[in-house]
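step=encode ok
step=design start
structure_in=
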């Protein structure tokens, strides 16, 4: 009787032990999967991709990188620079959609932003510039930031005018603490610590830029045009490095050939920002004080990039991508 009882208890103990071991294995697999997922770089990119060449190359560079996640591709306006064109956002939408389709990124949200600068009377006339329903990009930023768990940050990269993020911050100011924002921004000279807002993205919505600079809880990382434009691609030496018989890169080649350039050089500030995010060792940054006309606070500014290393990395990744498609 005692022997039979011992045998039963032993079986029960073994069963419990096995169940416990299985639980530990499964829970640890789940833990490490979650850890890997948390460590994987994810970005939302807000862009005026139909203007210039550097935004397209920046998006392409991010999409051919392994182990990264694009969580949204949003369209920014550049209306003040082209008052006769009422479809700058739609142009960006078309470019973004084409890029996402090329890379089979069908599940990435591709959303239009405001058609006018944040404080424009055109926005207010539609009901209010605070009306989120008129700006799907801002609504998405608000949604994603609000869903971000405490202690974590949403990574948002603005390659063009920052209208959409500014609108989101006006609408729901509390999201600022949930966002790491990386922008192509004003000129800044590290040696003299002098700012100059006479820069494309800034001029196309100066009020929006000031909103970002004045928002104390927003972690702001600026790639000044002063630094970003150190990354320059030589057109004549680069056209042969793109994949052959690839519709996206064929279009890039044709658009580059059509450029009216003085010295065959194409500035790639937006690409520099994306590569600095992907590989922090390719750049240097420091904390500086905002421009004197803004709320005085510390923000992060890139003060140096390794342009040669960034170009080598770009062409290597494009070569690897080309080989993978053969």
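sequence_out=
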């Amino acid at each position: 009787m005692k022997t039979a009882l011992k045998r039963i208890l032993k079986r029960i103990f073994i069963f419990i032990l096995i169940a416990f071991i299985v639980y530990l294995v499964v829970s640890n697999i789940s833990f490490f999967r979650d850890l890997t997922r948390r460590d994987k770089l994810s970005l939302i990119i807000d862009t005026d991709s139909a203007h210039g060449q550097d935004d397209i190359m920046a998006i392409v560079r991010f999409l051919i990188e392994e182990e990264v996640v694009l969580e949204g591709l949003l369209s920014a306006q550049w209306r003040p620079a082209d008052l006769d064109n009422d479809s700058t956002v739609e142009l960006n939408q078309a470019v973004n959609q084409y890029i996402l389709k090329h890379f089979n990124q069908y599940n990435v949200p591709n959303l239009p932003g405001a058609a006018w600068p944040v404080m424009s009377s055109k926005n207010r006339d539609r009901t209010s510039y605070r009306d989120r329903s008129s700006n799907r990009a801002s609504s998405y930023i608000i949604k994603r930031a609000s869903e971000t768990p405490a202690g974590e940050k949403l990574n948002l990269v603005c390659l063009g005018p920052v209208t959409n993020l500014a609108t989101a911050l006006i609408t729901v100011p509390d999201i600022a603490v949930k966002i790491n924002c990386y922008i192509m921004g004003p000129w800044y000279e590290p040696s003299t610590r002098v700012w100059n807002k006479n820069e494309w993205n800034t001029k196309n919505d100066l009020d929006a830029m000031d909103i970002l600079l004045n928002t104390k809880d927003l972690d702001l990382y600026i790639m000044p045009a002063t630094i970003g434009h150190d990354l320059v691609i030589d057109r004549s030496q680069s056209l042969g490095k793109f994949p052959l018989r690839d519709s996206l890169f064929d279009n890039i080649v044709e658009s580059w050939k059509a450029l009216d350039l003085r010295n065959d050089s194409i500035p790639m500030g937006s690409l520099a920002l994306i590569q600095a995010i992907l590989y922090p060792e390719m750049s240097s940054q420091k904390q500086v004080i905002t421009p004197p006309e803004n709320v005085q606070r510390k923000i992060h500014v890139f003060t140096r990039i390794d342009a040669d290393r960034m170009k080598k990395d770009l062409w290597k990744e494009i070569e690897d991508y080309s080989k993978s498609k053969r």
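step=design ok
step=annotate ok -> The radius of gyration is 24 Å.
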